[in-house]
Amino acid sequence: MRTLAIRKALGAVVLLGGVAFAADQLVPTKILLVKDKPGDATKRKINFKVKENASAATVVGDPIASGGATLHVVLTGGGDQCFSMPASGWSNISDLGFKYKDPDLTNGAVKVASIKKTPSGVFQIKVTLKGSGSEAITIVPGNPTATYGTNFALGGGDSYCAGTGTTPATPNPNDEKTFKVVNDTPPASCTASACASPSGAFVDR
Length: 205
Prior knowledge:
The structure is a single chain. Helices cover about 5% and strands about 40% of the residues. By secondary structure, the protein is mainly beta. The protein has one domain (about 1-180). A hairpin with a 3-residue loop joins strand 8 and strand 9 (about 95-100). The relative contact order is 0.26.
């Protein structure tokens, strides 16, 4: 899988002045949940999932060999934050994709993450974040949140952008404690930029 992913990344990446530029793939939000407990930031958490059947999206990049991965979450009215998932936490999921584990939250707020595409064409991204470890979660629900955007970027590869859809789903709840949106359509464009990778190399367009 790593060799295949690297070849895909090399085919997608254009070098300009030593900086790698990758493609943006637009994907639908299965769920984005941002929860806050006022007065206790350690209870904040974020769950993000993408699931698309018969998807045109592909896994392009290799977080093991090319600097890990990042997730940028933006809530209009609630702030934005970049989260890093360093290469040391990643491993292969057979030849389907990659998974990340940091059960003790030593490297940051991301506890588990994965990206894969099944032989039947189902594309999936999952990320679970908690604010009880080494990195605080500063994003809070906007009360209400007007729009949202996410950018999951693989080192040496593509960005996977979700966000307020072209036919937007209605968040519920959308208050000071909880922002939750489910089954949203893909956005018209990437509204959240990719972050710098854990190694310091930019993976953004």
